[in-house]
Amino acid sequence: MTLPRIVKPTLLRSHEPLLEIPNNSTTGETSMRNLIVAIGLIAFSASILTAQTNSNQQPRNEFFAGYSFHSADINTLTVDPHRTAQNGFNLAYTRNITPHVGLVADASAHFHRNTRSTSVSTFSSQRDQYFVLGGPRFQAGNERSLRPFAHALFGVSLFHGFTADRRTSGNVFTFDDASSFAMALGGGLDLRLSSRVDLRLIQADYTPTFFGSGRQNNFRISVGVVFKH
Q1: DSSP characters for 16-73?
Q2: Cβ atoms of residues 126 and 156 within 8 Å
Q3: pLDDT digit string (tens) for 115-169?
Q4: What's the CATH number where 162 sits?
Q5: Which of 35, 74, 190, 204 could disulfide-link 198, Cβ–Cβ 3.0 to 4.6 Å?
Q6: At 106, phi and psi to the nearest 5?
């Protein structure tokens, strides 16, 4: 009788792994770096677009201040009437209702001093004129480098005159104060320096007044700086 052989099982060893799991640490770091760079680029682009959009938006408030020259047609206002050159300043505030329409409050003051002497007398004169006006303004949008505008302003003008005629025989002094309805019809051109500051290259106005029974044909020219907010 032959006995069955008992075979001892042999454990097979393999130096190669049955399943290779890749190392994802390097791949993850690269992906995270790319994601951060992409987010940074998006944020940078958005900030640029936002800045451009804000700079092109029409500011709600504008303040103008500058030098003003006034050619006054003083024909019936005082002693020795004639056209007089006056120097002064012009201030204005504009409230923009839309990008192309605003409301303006305007004030200006102009002054003139003159003295003439002869062998027998000295004649000096003082002629000052003030304007307080308001009305609509029509303008180009803030996205343009050069912004033309036009306005029609209405209000009051105040005139103050003083003359002194000094002679050896005696002195004569006269005072002239008057007020009148006034207008400023004109416009100008602003050069954009930044989103907050413009340079007013020119503002030219026809500024008639109606002192007495006549009309005085005056002209005003202003230049200065515009602050926007």
Answers
A1: S-SSPPP--HHHHHHHHHHHHHHHHHHHHHHHHHHHHHHHHSPPSEEEEEEEEEEEEE
A2: no
A3: 888 878 888 888 899 999 999 999 998 788 999 999 999 999 999 988 888 887 8
A4: 2.40.160.20
A5: 190
A6: -125, 135
pLDDT tens-digit series, residues 163-214: 888 887 888 888 889 999 999 999 999 999 998 999 999 999 999 999 888 8
- Residues composing the chain: 229
The number of angstroms, rounded, from the C-alpha of 35 to the middle of its chain's C-alpha atoms is 42
Residue 49 domain boundaries: 27-56
Whole-number Å distance between alpha carbons of 59 and 198: 12
**Are 32 and 95 in a shared domain?**
no
Instruction: Give the residue among 146, 151, 141, 157 at the shortest CA–CA distance from 187.
Output: 151
- Provide the token pair at 23: 């190392």
Two structure tokens written together for 112: 């003139």
Across the strands, what pairs with 175? 162
Query: Do residues 202 and 102 share a domain?
Result: yes
Q: Considering just the CA atoms, what is the radius of gyration of the chain in Å?
A: 40
* Burial group, residue 99, by CB count within 10 angstroms (0-12, 13-18, 19+): middle
